[in-house]
Amino acid sequence: MFSRPDLHKLLLSKIPPNKIHFNKRVLSVGQSDKGVLLRCADGSIYEGDILIGADGAYSAVRQSMYERLQKENLLPRCDTISLSAGYACMVGTTVPQDPEKYPILKDDYSHLFVVVAEGKPHSWTVITVPGNRFCFGVVIQLGDKERDETFRNSEWGPELIDSMIAQVADHKVPCGTLGDLIQATPKELISKVYLEEKLFETWNHDRIALIGDACHKMLPSAGQGAINAMQDAVILANCIYELRSRSHKQIVAALKDYKSQRYDHAKKQVQISSTVGKVFYGQTWHEKLMRRAVFTWMPMSFEERSFFKLVGYRPQVTFQPFVENKTNLKILPQKMSKRYAEEQKLNQENQKS
């Protein structure tokens, strides 16, 4: 287990620097039978065959696509409703700590602690990660006032951060207090977000498709947000690989196929994440009752079956040899590549000749 900044560095190291352009803000998106056109705030223009909106919960690509669909009366009403924000969250990763002070850092495995406050709208998680560091997350359940659209903002001001820290600094964790971990964390390694959720119905239109939070924003409670974004990317890559030409008709069909393969799985994970969020973060009386029922009466066998069913869905890229399943888990089948099978057959025939 490792921290998200480490994952970002790993992914970044595998991408040629000239393939990434920073400080780009999308102003408009246009598309036709011949291609798609992207205009940015700095005056730059990009043209291509396909545009993928992987730009998060407040996706500018989605907004532009939806505006066009609304004008054509093609956008479902449910996709015009804002995301639902039930919680606020602060997460961070400390600098390396002294293992003598925190002996649990000496272990070869990660420790995970989840605490739900009694009588306060707080819950918090602490995880040990390589490099003698702690990752922590603090969640506050929002009341009706805080849920109001005018209250939400994509970035919190320092006064709101300080207010949240003051509320939770004294909360106990196995290695001291949350305040100790917060003090050991540089401000630039602390992120503040509202935990929102929504499953959008419209994932694609013509040459545009959405992936990740742009089309299915999940609570982090079940750890499925980033995983599902990666699964989106895998299935989308498979569908693009199957293209026999860059014609408008084939591209539209490929993007529709991508959604058809992914939608039901993503929908299920949005629902599971929402339920787990109520168990881990909820403070209403019925959420407390649900939490007690889950941890007191739910059989371990049921939890194991649910977990195995969850991890049994592990799509792979179909244009490479599959990774061997070295477990006893039953892996769910996925759509195979006709093109890859044809290429492999042709290669075998060429080798024989």
UniProtKB/TrEMBL annotation:
Q: Which family does it belong to?
A: Belongs to the paxM FAD-dependent monooxygenase family.
In terms of InterPro entries, this protein maps to: FAD-bd (IPR002938), FAD/NAD-bd_sf (IPR036188), FAD_mOase_fung (IPR050562)
Note the superkingdom of the native organism: Eukaryota
Organism whose genome encodes this protein:
Entomortierella chlamydospora
Q: Which UniProt keywords apply?
A: FAD, Flavoprotein, Oxidoreductase
Molecular function per GO:
FAD binding; monooxygenase activity
What are the transmembrane regions? none
* One Pfam family of this chain: FAD_binding_3
Put simply, this protein is called FAD-binding domain-containing protein
Supply the PANTHER family for this chain: FAD-BINDING DOMAIN-CONTAINING PROTEIN-RELATED, FAD-DEPENDENT MONOOXYGENASE ASQG-RELATED
